[in-house]
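Re-running the complex after MR caught last week's input typo. The corrected sequence lines follow. Everything else is unchanged.
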Amino acid sequence: MDEVTAGDGWTREAAALTREWTLADFSAALAFVNRVGALAEEHGHHPDILLHGWNTVRLTLSTHSVGGLTAADERLAVAIDAL
Amino acid sequence: MDEVTAGDGWTREAAALTREWTLADFSAALAFVNRVGALAEEHGHHPDILLHGWNTVRLTLSTHSVGGLTAADERLAVAIDAL
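Corrected-run output:
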């Protein structure tokens, strides 16, 4: 997409995998964040983690070094789904 | 500001306190998130927590029930600063 030039005020976002989970409460959401964090450390690959609205966690997986998705993102997503 | 009507495509964001911390690594950032989480549970008041870019934590404090800032946000901010 190099031929596309966005106007001022736009930021190009890299392709990413994103998914949101709603847990029972803040404590459950924070526990989920910690399980995801442990997996991320195992994988050496770290998602962006947003805990918002008290009990909801949104994960965003992408590979910053390539500006998009790689097999590392797919592997981490599969591992998180297995939690 | 009720007299101001934004055009389509705009979302009004409530007033909030926001601050960002950059830690040594993902593990340190996650530990910080847990300390903030424990404080939030003590206060019965929960910020939005974004762990992004591997080692950076952004907190956003506001009181959803009033759509803006209250003393509860100020108290939690002071407590977090004391961590």
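None of the earlier attempt is carried over here. The longest strand of chain B covers residues 17-22. Chain B touches chain A at residues 26-27, 30, 33-34, 37, 40-41, 46, 48-54, 64 (CB under 8 Å).
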